[in-house]
Amino acid sequence: MDTLSILAYLVLLVLTTLSYPFIKQRSKTSHNKLTTRPGDLRPPPGSMGLPYVGETLLLYSQDPNVFFAEKQKRYGDVFKTHILGYPSVMLASPQASRFVLATHAHLFKPTYPKSKMALIGPSALFFHQGEYHQGVRKIVQSSISGPQRISPLIPLIEDIAVSTLDSLPDGSVICTFNAMKMYAFDVGVLSIFGRLSSEHREELRRSYKLVEKGYNCFPLSLPGTAYHTAISARRRLSQTLREIIHERKEQLRVAESNLLDHLLRYRDGEGRGLSDDQIADNVIGVLFAAQDTTASALTWIVKYLHDDAKLLEAVQMEQKAIRTANGGSGFLTWNQKRDMKLTQKVILESLRMSSIISFTFREAIVDVEYNGYLIPKGWKVMPLFRNLHHNPSFFPDPQKFDPSRFEIVPKPNTFTPFGSGVHACPGNELAKLEILIFLHHLVTKFRWEVTGSEIGIQYGPFPIPLHGLPARYWRATPCA
Ligand code: HEM
């Protein structure tokens, strides 16, 4: 690879990692005026690096987390830099994160490369701000959260967990992350469509895989490139979704309560519904938001449990007691989440340690004053979740995996694996539930061994254990 290609790849890699939230149009919400004349304010301390490239190369010549941590040490919790072609302000304090994501969210818009928007679909809710975002978000949230909506999914999610685990070849090395992706995809499809024919599900899976591949590549749309293949697959995805939407419109009177049916029924304040394209973009958006995040989290949990035999044994005991209470084969119930206290803490600690979404990205839509500093209009703003999660003032001995730290509720805005404010994750309850269900079946019926001696992290785009955690899985004998 020549230098330019490497640079382009790095830029893309970062954009991918940064890329969760997005926006298509400017917020029409009124904004707070500066209390001080802009000329009297300065951006926060920091270094802008070289002309044009800023500090992008420095960022990628080392572990990005080290880059951020060192800057924080040198300049404090709010500092400026210049990466990926943009002047940026990084925020590593709970107050600053809350300011941008919650209390003053109307002064910042999500921001995202056009090439990625084209693959997901420009109407996906996370690109938006204001009325449209609020309307669609309300539907998504009411369809995939709360016991009334998600507890009926428990037996169906259990079926998916069991068949995912049963499909693992006994004793052969597999990529854990890939298996988790299959699981998270199927649960995502279930929560979006309810029951779906296996033909449609497999068509979606095939096209989605290609879209995903292109998403992580350089956005050059020439025949033969991964991006071009992804754009074609995205068109096929739309076609499949149009067919499903058409069928659903006909059956809507007897519909189940899933996200697609809610999107089809949606009417805004003026009685307007969503177009088929808007529905398709949001379906793909939710699938995108749901799959790799949950699969990465699960992969880390499998690793952390593997690395701590005592902890694994304690989790096994907790889950086996629930299995025995259910007669050995009965379905889990919503209330049994309460009996999974240790497993829940393991999940929280894994989310803290791995900080899958290390930071998020916004752009100032006006000149903003924060704590006596100027955040100029057009600058990127990045709340650094990982820095908060790894700050010893909030989480003592932060590199130690210690689920018991969650016996005490973390201080406000210090623990935000699911974000915070107007774009906070509406799928967080579902994600935790599907992880609990998978772990219940994994630890009570299987044992596993991670293979290879290499330790490390790779980004795909979220951080995962190196090579997706190759491991062997065996069905445990009843007395094991
Ligand atoms: C462990 C798994 C997950 C993690 C760590 C996670 C994390 C996050 C974070 C940090 C955000 C906010 C990003 C920002 O503010 O820029 C977010 C947004 C979102 N997540 Fe999740 N997520 C997970 C699973 C899910 C699942 C299972 C679903 C759906 C079934 C989902 C749907 C969404 C959607 C639709 C948004 C955009 C919300 C908006 O813009 O209003 N996520 N997620």
Explain what the structure shows.
It is built from 17 helices and twelve strands. The chain has a domain at 40-112 and 358-416: 2-Layer Sandwich (Uridine Diphospho-n-acetylenolpyruvylglucosamine Reductase, domain 2), CATH 3.30.43.20. Helix content is 49%, strand content 10%. It is globular, with a radius of gyration of 23 Å. By secondary structure, it is of the alpha+beta class. The termini are far apart. Strand 6 (368-370) and strand 7 form a beta hairpin. It binds protoporphyrin IX containing FE. Protoporphyrin IX containing FE binds at residues 20-21, 125-126, 137, 140, 144, 188, 191, 286, 289-290, 293-294, 297, 356-357, 360, 417-419, 423-427, 430-431. Heme binds at residue 425. It is found in: Membrane. It is a single-pass membrane protein.
Biggest sheet details: 5 strands, mixed
CATH class wording of the domain at 40-112 and 358-416 = Alpha Beta
Number of helices in the DSSP assignment: 17
Note the run of SSEs as H and E.
HHHEEHEHHHHEHHHHHHHEEEEHHEEEE
What structural category arises from helix and sheet content?
alpha+beta
CATH topology of the domain at 40-112 and 358-416: the name is Uridine Diphospho-n-acetylenolpyruvylglucosamine Reductase, domain 2
CATH architecture descriptor name of the domain at 40-112 and 358-416: 2-Layer Sandwich
Question: How many DSSP E strands?
Answer: 12
Unreliable runs: 1-31
Radius of gyration: 23 Å
Instruction: Report the bound ligands by name, code or SMILES.
Output: protoporphyrin IX containing FE
Gross morphology is globular
* Residues in β-strands, percent: 5-15%
Average pLDDT figure = 89
Spatial ordering of strands, largest sheet: 1-2-8-5-3
Distance between the termini: 50 Å
What helical percentage do the residues reach?
40-55%
